Amino acid sequence: MPVVSLAQLQGKVLESARFDGETEEWIFQFPSKTCLQVSAPWRLLVEGRIRLGWRDHGHRFGLPKPVDASERLPIGSSVTEASIVDGTGDLSVVFAGGAVLEVFNDSCGYEGWTLNGPGAGSYVVAQGGGTIVRSGDRWLTCACSGRRCAPPLNGQVVSRRVKWNSPTLPYWSSCPAESLLKTA
Predict the structure, then answer these.
(1) d(CA 29, CA 165)
(2) Is 8 exposed, middle or buried (0-12, 13-18, 19+ CB in 10 A)?
(3) CA nearest 54: which of 30, 22, 25?
(4) pLDDT tens digits for 127-166?
(5) Quick one: which of 6, 17, 39 has its CA closest to 117?
(6) What is the pLDDT of residue 58?
(7) For residues 164 and 148, is the Cβ–Cβ distance under 8 A?
(8) Can you say whether residue 25 is alpha, beta or left, with left for phi > 0 and alpha for psi between -120 and 50 degrees?
(9) Cβ(99)–Cβ(93) under 8 Å?
(10) Distance CA 43, CA 141 (A)
(11) Quick count: other Cβ atoms within 10 Å of Cβ 72?
């Protein structure tokens, strides 16, 4: 599957990371109001080994004290490369020093991760099923429902039925692709 660069993160420093128990998302904060919200499984690789996983924070695993994710994440390190796998929506973020954050978009229906920023109204969303939607994408309007829909990252409309539910962003319609005719 093709890999697509995520230039918005390149050169940005990871300022903080925390788990939001209310939304059940990990929040990775970068400068310029850039925020990566992750609800899918993720892991941090260092020297090719798993240093931290999305469920590890707060667990003891027989250690003297519980795992503190902030001690293991590359806080203060800059991103040297960030990319998305087109087709799955998996995300890879490489930091200076070689640590790699891998996010696995694991659902056919739920959004796996959202990158907000830099700036208001700028976002990238990994939808369920692996479709990537970016702010500024050319929206389509479904002739059946009249709803606004986003094309896949590669810009081609697929002929299968796809549905995405989000309270905040436009979504793929459950209508067949041939009904996605009007541009908006």
Answers:
(1) 25
(2) buried
(3) 25
(4) 888 888 888 655 544 555 555 555 444 444 333 333 333 4
(5) 6
(6) 86
(7) no
(8) beta
(9) no
(10) 37
(11) 17
Given its phi and psi angles, is residue 59 left (phi above 0), alpha (psi -120 to 50 degrees) or beta? beta
Helix (H, G, I), strand (E, B) or coil at 54: coil
Cα–Cα distance, 173 to 180 (Å, whole number): 9
- The percentage of residues in the chain with a pLDDT greater than 90, rounded to a whole number, is 47
Concatenate the DSSP letters of all residues of 115-169 into one string. Answer: EE-SSTT-EEEE-GGG-EEETTPPPEE-TTT--EE---TTS---SS------SSS
3-state secondary structure (DSSP) of residue 63: coil
pLDDT at 133: 85
135's tokens: 């702010």
> pLDDT tens digits, residue range 10-40?
999 999 999 988 888 999 999 988 999 999 9
pLDDT at residue 112 tops 90: yes
Q: Is the link from the previous residue into 118 a cis peptide, with omega within 30 of 0?
A: yes
How buried is residue 23: exposed, middle or buried, by Cβ count under 10 Å (0-12/13-18/19+)?
exposed
C-alpha angle 111/167/105, rounded to 5°?
0
* DSSP state for residue 71 in the 8-state scheme: H
Six token digits for residue 84: 């998305």
Token pair for 99: 């640590």
